[in-house]
Amino acid sequence: FFKKDALQRELLDVNELVREMIVLLRHEAIRHSISIRTELAENVPMVLADRVQLQQVFMNLMLNGFDAIKDSNRGDELTIRSEICDGQLLISVRDTGLGLPAGQEAERVFDTFFTTKGNGTGMGLPISRSIIESHGGRLWATGVSGMGATFQFTLPTAFVAAAA
Predict the structure, then answer these.
(1) Of 60, 69, 74, 135, whose CB count within 10 A is highest?
(2) What is the maximum span of the chain, computed from C-alpha positions, in angstroms?
(3) How would you classify residue 133: left for phi > 0, otherwise alpha for psi between -120 and 50, otherwise beta?
(4) CA distance 141 to 45
């Protein structure tokens, strides 16, 4: 799991990867009465990425969202969105849960071993950030305590030249 191997990069349709992760985590969402909504842009460019590592990022962000939602009384929806922004693919995972700690504490969620969950290890978000950065992207969070959180990441798109 933590072994440093060479990335197995391939051209990926991130929207398709999102759909696969929703199928994989559907039972967990149903168990907690959480609906998953998608707002996936059409015809997004492919990305050159390691499938397993991006699955790991999605799984972490989605399960964190589920945990935040089930611990709150605010709502029951996780929204995953894709769009093109400044030539990069922008993915957002937004929950209706507890939100982020106030002020400077919000960035601490990416510190190794920092957790806001009673059973958390504080490893998921730092690993996710490291994965996204190794793919040339950036991962960050926004949100207001008690009002939900949005985790966003960018990935460079892969422009494939047509064969001559």
Answers:
(1) 69
(2) 57
(3) alpha
(4) 24
- Distant-in-sequence, close-in-space partners of 44: CB < 8 Å, separation ≥ 6: 13, 14, 15, 82, 83, 84, 89, 157
The rounded distance, in Å, linking the Cα atoms of 162 and 164 is: 6
Most confident by average pLDDT, 46-60, 98-112, 118-132: 46-60
Q: Which two tokens stand for residue 52?
A: 């397993």
- Summarize pLDDT for 121-146 with one digit per residue, the tens: 567 899 999 999 999 999 999 886 66
Give the other-Cβ count within 10 Å of 74's Cβ.
16
Question: What's the token pair of residue 89?
Answer: 């693919």
- Please check the confidence at residue 164 and state whether its pLDDT lies above 60: no
> Measured between alpha carbons, how far is 39 from 108 in angstroms, rounded to an integer?
28
34-64: b (≥16 Cβ within 10 Å) or e: bebeeeeeeebbbbbbbeebbebbbbbbbeb
